[in-house]
Design brief:
8-stranded mixed sheet; 273 residues; Rossmann fold; alpha/beta
């Protein structure tokens, strides 16, 4: 499929752009910001765990046009307290960048983190990626196309953009309003849908979580089933009785709730194999 070949070529470019580590300073227990090339990321050092701690990379949401890397809520505090380096990725927002460019930036950021993790006391072989909403779409697309390499676990938290054609079909033939502008190029819907790549590479284990938001359960389950059918190890988290689309992100790490526990258990199991 030509669009997949194009994505693979661009993913390789993203990998090469992040292949040379920069000169970094010794981290303190406070956030530090770094350029990874196309944009910037924030690094929150682990508060425990010593050297070779796992790294969790977070990609924010905001309908591809809003939000910023500082919007991490309680997640940074929770995960650094539990022995993870926590990294929040900034990416160029729409319309300055389309979703393909955004996904490639996420891939470049992940590759930069892997190449530089040891300088922070991080373990480059134990990297997980997590995204919410638009960030869930972008992190899934970057990981499943191979733009982000060396991902050992993926947490997909509540998006309807796994399969754009199916999303439009379930909405009377059109994409919902928030999706219409970023995905206005109908001919690219397949190339920009993570479900198109579930069998493209061997995917890492994936946790797929969904909220009570309209249609999110059906689209998330469809994506999880496609991953599983193509050989991925999949954990499903049904949060529709507990969380809205907003709270499923905001309450992660802020409470000792079921979702936080599920993500903690998933990451411990997958990153310590």
């Amino acid at each position: 499929m030509p669009t997949r070949r194009q994505f693979t070529s661009r993913a390789l470019s993203a990998f090469c752009a992040a292949s040379a580590p920069l000169s970094l300073t010794t981290p303190a227990h406070a956030v530090q910001s770094f350029s990874y090339g196309p944009n910037h990321l924030d690094w929150y050092p682990a508060k425990s765990g010593g050297n070779s701690a796992p790294v969790l990379i977070y990609v924010h949401g905001g309908a591809w046009a809003l939000g910023n890397k500082g919007q991490v809520g309680s997640k940074a505090g929770h995960f650094t307290k539990n022995g993870y380096h926590f990294v929040s990725v900034g990416y160029t927002l729409f319309p300055a960048a389309n979703v393909e460019r955004q996904a490639l930036q996420v891939g470049t950021a992940v590759n930069w983190v892997r190449n530089n993790a040891a300088r922070f006391g991080g373990d480059p072989s134990r990297i997980a990626v997590m995204g919410h909403s638009a960030g869930c779409h972008l992190s899934s697309l970057a990981t499943l196309t191979g733009a982000a390499q060396g991902v050992k676990a993926l947490v997909c938290n509540d998006t309807r953009a796994y399969d754009l054609t199916e999303l439009a079909r379930s909405n009377g033939g059109r994409l919902p309003l928030l999706y219409a502008a970023p995905f206005r190029r109908r001919k690219m819907w397949s190339a920009w849908s993570p479900i198109s790549y579930t069998g493209f590479i061997q995917p890492p284990p994936v946790l797929v979580a969904w909220s009570s938001g309209s249609g999110r359960d059906k689209l998330s389950k469809r994506f999880a089933n496609a991953l599983e059918n193509d050989g991925a190890e999949v954990v499903r988290y049904d949060g529709k009785r507990q969380y809205s689309h907003v709270s499923i992100d905001r309450r992660m790490g802020a409470e000792n709730g079921k979702l936080t526990k599920a993500v903690d258990q998933f990451l411990v199991e997958m990153l310590n194999r």
